[in-house]
Amino acid sequence: MIPYPLSTGPSCGDPNYFSFNCNTTSGQVSFIAPSGTYRVASIDPDTRSFLIQVNDRGNPRLNHSLPFNLTSPRNFSTEVTDEVEIVWKPPREPICNTSANCNDWSHSTCKSARDGKRRCLCTFSYRWDGAMLKCRKG
């Protein structure tokens, strides 16, 4: 299962994180970067990180417009591949079309945001916590 905000398509997750492909037959997840496609070894939503397998012993080039960062040299080497850890930035509020799309996000409603997109924006006296993925009192 690919956790929010990571996305395999325009209708799931956050479109800004649409950098993943899932083979429905094998269940294998791949990360799509400007330098190529990499096998995802694991995803940890608690640390907002995932490991990719790199065959050329080099770090993949990430497009700076993507919401991901390579961690400092933390490669997990094997004879054939390195596993490189990548961390994703906390997401903005979820994209929506109607308020029904915000039902899973308590204390939010679908409204136009500053970026011109419709998002599940927190209601009065709540603010978005991208690390916790919810609207929090505050």
UniProtKB/TrEMBL annotation:
The encoding gene: WAKL15_4
Species assigned in the record: Quercus suber
UniProt GO molecular function: kinase activity
Organismal lineage: Eukaryota, Viridiplantae, Streptophyta, Embryophyta, Tracheophyta
Protein's name according to its UniProt entry: Wall-associated receptor kinase-like 15
